[in-house]
Specification:
The chain is about 65% helix and about 0% strand. It is mainly α. It folds into 2 domains: about 5-65, 434 Repressor (Amino-terminal Domain), CATH 1.10.260; about 70-100.
Length: about 100
């Protein structure tokens, strides 16, 4: 694991949601300066804040820390048919990516 992974991953997640550092900070109860510090590897969150960030982006703390490379999807509100459909779509994307 690279120590810089957390900041890079946080920045990617923030940008994927089209959020500014200020907007993300507001959503998490942090300042823009703190978000910037995290993204630039100048500081790291406490365990409580790490869990808060993971919950906000619906990823695991391992993903945020660069330990786990895959994201997870929260399917807890879906029925089995919907979950099966998502599995088939993911399988098709994976198959397509392997052939490229």
């Amino acid at each position: 694991m690279n120590v810089c992974d957390f900041g890079t991953i946080l920045k990617q997640l923030r940008k994927s949601q089209n959020l500014t550092q200020k907007e993300l900070g507001f959503q998490l109860g942090l300042s823009k300066a703190v978000v910037s510090k995290y993204e630039n590897g100048m500081g790291y969150p406490t365990f409580d804040v790490l869990i808060l960030i993971a919950d906000y982006f619906k990823v695991t703390t391992d993903y945020l820390l660069g330990v786990e490379k895959s994201k997870t999807l929260d399917v807890s509100t879906l029925n089995e048919t919907q979950i099966d459909t998502i599995r088939r779509i993911i399988a098709e994307f994976n198959k397509s990516n392997r052939t490229q």
